[in-house]
Amino acid sequence: MGPRHGASSDRVSGWLWEVKDPKDVERVLTARLTRGDGLPGFGHQIYKSGDPRADCLLDMIMAFGRDSPFLEVIPELRAQGQALFGLSPNIDFALASAQRTFNFPQDAGKVLFCTGRMVGWIAHALEQYETNAQIRPRATYIGDRPR
């Protein structure tokens, strides 16, 4: 896990705090666009037409975050992210939104991301032990090998 995968919700939280009210959304996003800044939390390399994980989590946030004023901001952020950047929210936006809606601690997005991945990581490790083969290798290991 690093700044591009899992910890990206921190970058989303960084700009998200500039948005206090639905009326702030267009100004904040337009300023990012004008500066040539990206929009962390929007767009995904695999989910080109929208991240289903984000959609599911955002629906749950909208259903259970009844007392949070941030709920008024989420639909406008989704609409303006699409209108100005042509991008849909991804899981990092949804995690940062959960953090903001429910007043979770600062690093909650990363923790929630990792918690959701743990079962998969453990399953991969068990499968690798069982088959004695690396799963989904994407690079060549060049370090010392055990003898």
Brief rundown of the structure:
With 147 residues, this protein is mainly α. Helices cover 56% and strands 0% of the residues.
Count the helices. How many? Answer: 6
What class would the helix/strand composition place it in?
A: mainly alpha
Arithmetic mean pLDDT: 87
- Low-confidence runs: none
* Shape label: elongated
User: If classified by CATH, what would the architecture of the domain at 8-109 be?
Assistant: Orthogonal Bundle
Distance between the termini: 28 Å
Strand count: 0
Percentage of residues assigned to helices: 55-70%
CATH homologous superfamily heading of the domain at 8-109: Cytochrome P450-Terp, domain 2
CATH topology of the domain at 8-109: Cytochrome p450-Terp, domain 2
Q: Write down the secondary-structure element order.
A: HHHHHH
**Largest sheet properties:** none
Strand content: under 5%
Protein name: citrate synthase (unknown stereospecificity)
Enzyme class: transferase
Pathway: Carbohydrate metabolism; tricarboxylic acid cycle; isocitrate from oxaloacetate: step 1/2
EC number: 2.3.3.16
